[in-house]
């Protein structure tokens, strides 16, 4: 440990801060649907997710090895490069959290790392083939696979049970949703916590503390697991609201299908060493579940904002990382300036978030800027309408049919006019 320098210690702490932001940024991945359907209370949900994230951090190191020795060349990498990469990732995480956008913490980290490495040593410092095969391809494939699987699973769940069992079925799916949410949290720990392990290991390699190709030390695994668990427990309520209420309205059957599908994709990718975005996987599954229920609506205006954030994450974090590395190359004063900018930027974003706070008390409430029910009034998008047209009606007696019938009965049909009743007021324009 004699090689531990002040700069290396700062990088390790900064990496754990990123891990912390990753935890509260990505809590929505595991618990948004569970909270929005009422399967668990908000605080209980995030506490369970935190514990399982910590457990998941100890299950595998494949993703950590991909980051510490795959994306960029370890030889000749400077500690300042890693510090600059983390600055880009943290600031992008905080900005998207402020906007309530479930963007990818993983891609923010990759973008910051790539941008800083290129600024430091040119494009030769980046392993392009690894980025394509283990980052870009999974980024496109994961949400599609999870979305299709969730849509198929949702359609099947609404056709399995008969009407007399509808109430018991909903309870069963809530229980299953809790289990599947736990599985997503476990998967998140096996994938996202390892990214911080990989970054810290890369810094240790750059300073000669461990040899290239080494597995993360036990203290690195434990500290990364604790940091992401703490961030998860505090809860990223702004993003939970977007995932649970902004994309679509989920019933327990849909929440179960979405979480099971995304957990399967994440665990499979962790086993293969693919460092995919859990955010994109879960978002794709939620949209697929929304499309899988007859009459379900995906709010494509919110989804479009998410897609834009996904596309901007790598280049935006990369530019910030490159700028930070440009400053750190100037010497000690540059490193100090970058650290000051990180603290100042984080403080500004936090103060802006306090203007309209979101917490466990209002995370499932209607949007504060719109009248009650305004979110539900958004018309179905083109994709939703097209799928509804070609989808066959649910069989008589199924849960979906009962749900549709119950919806109709909540709107009373107009009866015969009462001669004694006063004339009706003119209808308000909609």
Topology:
Layout: H1 6-36, H2 42-56, H3 62-69, H4 79-98, H5 105-121, H6 128-160, H7 166-206, H8 218-234, H9 237-246, H10 252-272, H11 278-292, H12 300-328, H13 332-353, H14 382-390, H15 399-409
Structure write-up:
The structure is a single chain. This protein is mainly alpha-helical and 430 residues long. The chain contains 15 helices and no strands. Helix 1 runs parallel beside helix 4 (79-98). The protein is globular, with a radius of gyration of 24 Å. It starts with 5 loop residues before the first helix and ends in a 21-residue tail after the last helix.
Structure in a nutshell:
70% of the residues lie in helices and 0% in strands. The chain has helices at residues 6-36, 42-56, 62-69, 79-98, 105-121, 128-160, 166-206, 218-234, 237-246, 252-272, 278-292, 300-328, 332-353, 382-390, 399-409. The longest helix is centred in the middle third of the chain and has 41 residues, at 166-206.
Main attributes of the structure:
430 residues, 15 helices
Class derived from helix and strand content: mainly alpha
Label the overall shape.
globular
Largest sheet: none
The averaged pLDDT comes out at 74
Give the N-terminus to C-terminus distance in angstroms: 69 Å
How many whole angstroms does the radius of gyration measure?
Answer: 24 Å
User: What are the low-pLDDT stretches, counting only 5+ consecutive residues below 50?
Assistant: 368-392, 397-430
Q: How many helices in DSSP terms?
A: 15
SSE order in H/E notation? HHHHHHHHHHHHHHH
Helix content estimate: 55-70%
Q: Count of DSSP E strands? A: 0
Estimate what percentage of residues fall within beta strands. under 5%
């Amino acid at each position: 440990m004699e090689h531990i320098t002040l700069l290396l210690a700062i990088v390790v702490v900064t990496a754990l801060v990123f891990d912390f932001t990753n935890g509260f940024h990505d809590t929505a991945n595991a618990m948004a649907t569970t909270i929005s359907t009422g399967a668990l209370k908000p605080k209980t949900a995030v506490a369970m997710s935190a514990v399982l994230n910590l457990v998941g951090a100890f299950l595998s190191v494949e993703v950590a090895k991909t980051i510490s020795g795959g994306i960029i060349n370890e030889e000749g990498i400077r500690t300042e490069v890693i510090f600059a990469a983390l600055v880009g990732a943290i600031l992008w995480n905080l900005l998207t959290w402020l906007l309530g956008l479930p963007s990818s913490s993983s891609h923010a980290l990759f973008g910051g790392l790539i941008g800083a490495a290129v600024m430091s040593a040119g494009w030769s410092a980046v392993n392009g083939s690894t980025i394509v095969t283990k980052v870009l391809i999974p980024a496109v494939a994961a949400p599609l696979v999870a979305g299709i699987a969730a849509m198929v699973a949702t359609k099947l769940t609404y056709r399995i049970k008969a009407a007399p069992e509808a109430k018991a079925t909903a309870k069963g799916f809530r229980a299953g949703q809790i289990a599947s949410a736990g599985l997503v949290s476990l998967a998140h720990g096996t994938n996202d916590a390892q990214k911080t392990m990989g970054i810290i290991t890369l810094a240790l390699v750059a300073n000669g503390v461990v040899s290239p190709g080494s597995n993360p030390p036990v203290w690195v695994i434990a500290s990364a697991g604790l940091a992401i668990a703490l961030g998860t427990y505090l809860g990223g309520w702004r993003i939970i609201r977007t995932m649970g209420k902004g994309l679509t309205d989920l019933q327990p059957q849909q929440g179960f299908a979405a979480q099971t599908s995304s957990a399967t994709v994440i665990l499979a990718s962790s086993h293969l060493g693919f460092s995919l975005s859990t955010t994109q996987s879960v978002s794709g599954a939620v949209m697929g579940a929304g499309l899988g229920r007859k009459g379900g609506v995906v709010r494509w205006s919110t989804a479009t904002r998410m897609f834009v954030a996904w596309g901007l994450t790598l280049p935006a974090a990369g530019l910030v990382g490159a700028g930070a590395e440009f400053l750190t190359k100037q010497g000690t004063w540059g490193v100090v300036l970058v650290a000051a900018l990180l603290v100042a930027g984080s403080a500004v974003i936090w103060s802006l978030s306090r203007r309209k706070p979101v917490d466990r008390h209002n995370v499932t409430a209607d949007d504060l800027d719109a009248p009650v029910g305004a979110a539900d009034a958004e018309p179905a998008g083109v994709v939703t309408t097209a799928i509804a047209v070609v989808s066959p009606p649910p069989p008589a007696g199924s849960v979906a049919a009962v749900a549709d019938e119950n919806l109709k009965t909540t709107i009373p049909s107009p009866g015969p006019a009462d001669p004694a009743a006063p004339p009706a007021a003119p209808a308000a324009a909609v």
